[in-house]
Each structure stands twice: as C-alpha cells, then as structure tokens.
C-alpha cells in the first residue's frame, strides 16, 4: 500500500496523515485501492496533486467500490446538476460528496425546499463533513422536576 500511495505522489508526511485518519488503509485490497486511484485520474480527470488532496482529506475513499459506489455517486451528482466540468472542483472542496452519507444531506436540502437545479450550489457551499450527535438528552415535564446525570450517559430508567 505504501508503494501505491508513493506512486500516487503522496509524500511520507501525506502517508502518515492517511494512516492517522484511516489506519485501515494499510489492510485494504491493493486491487481495490488501485481501481480507486485509476477512477480519480481517468474518470474524474484529477491531476496527481488533486488525487493527493482527495486521499489526504478522505482516505476511506480507497476502500470504496468503483462500480458499485463511486460511478453511481458521480451519476447521481450529475443528475443534480453537477456537470463533468465542475465535479472535480466540488470533489476537491468537499470530498465527502463521493461518500455514502450524501443521500442524507440531499434529503435534508430537499425538505428545506432547495430546488434540484440549485442543489449543486448548496453542495459546494455547505459543509458536509460534520455530524451532530446527542449523547444525552432529557426533558422535564412542564411543572415537574428533572434530575440530570453528571456522567454524560443516557441516565437511569
């Protein structure tokens, strides 16, 4: 895997960054990772420096299936108005648009009333790479009292 990443113009520092962000990268199938690199270069027409940017920002892409995930995702983005000429820019600024979680974001934007013709602008301008997670939530009934747990857990039943 190291040779493959070095061949993709990643520096030793970049490879360290990939390892820290996605340790599983070094256990992946070389054939699958090679297919992903070929897809980024040939199908998406990314330069070596752009491939390096995508890999360091979204290393788990190395484990994605080109035929079953990446190509359908690109087709989906095209259907939302992201043309082949603007796709590389979008992927470089928001590499997670190639990931499986984009459907949730699209559904959210649709519920907000964003027209399909404007979806690509929203994808480019809105951050997609953060999540909100509620670890503990309790609400007291009106007029009642509530006790909160200092452990940050879900509380007692």
Automatic annotation (TrEMBL):
One of the record's GO molecular function terms: nucleic acid binding
Keyword Transit peptide among record annotations: yes
Family classification: Belongs to the mTERF family.
Keywords for the protein's UniProt record, in alphabetical order: Transcription, Transcription regulation, Transcription termination, Transit peptide
Name the UniProt record assigns to this protein: Mitochondrial transcription termination factor
The organism's place on the tree of life at top rank: Eukaryota
A matching Pfam family: mTERF
GO biological processes: DNA-templated transcription termination
InterPro entries hit by this protein: MTERF (IPR003690), MTERF_sf (IPR038538)
């Amino acid at each position: 895997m190291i040779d493959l990443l070095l061949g993709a113009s990643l520096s030793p520092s970049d490879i360290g960054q990939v390892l820290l962000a996605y340790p599983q990268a070094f256990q992946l199938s070389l054939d699958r990772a090679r297919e992903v690199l070929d897809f980024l270069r040939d199908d998406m027409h990314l330069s070596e420096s752009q491939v390096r940017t995508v890999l360091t920002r979204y290393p788990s892409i190395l484990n994605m299936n080109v035929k079953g995930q990446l190509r359908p995702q690109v087709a989906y983005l095209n259907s939302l108005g992201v043309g082949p000429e603007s796709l590389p820019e979008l992927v470089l600024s928001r590499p997670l648009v190639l990931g499986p979680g984009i459907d949730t974001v699209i559904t959210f934007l649709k519920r907000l009333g964003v027209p399909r013709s404007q979806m690509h602008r929203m994808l480019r301008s809105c951050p997609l790479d953060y999540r909100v997670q509620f670890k503990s939530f309790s609400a007291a009934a009106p007029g009642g009292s509530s006790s909160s747990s200092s452990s940050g857990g879900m509380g007692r039943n």
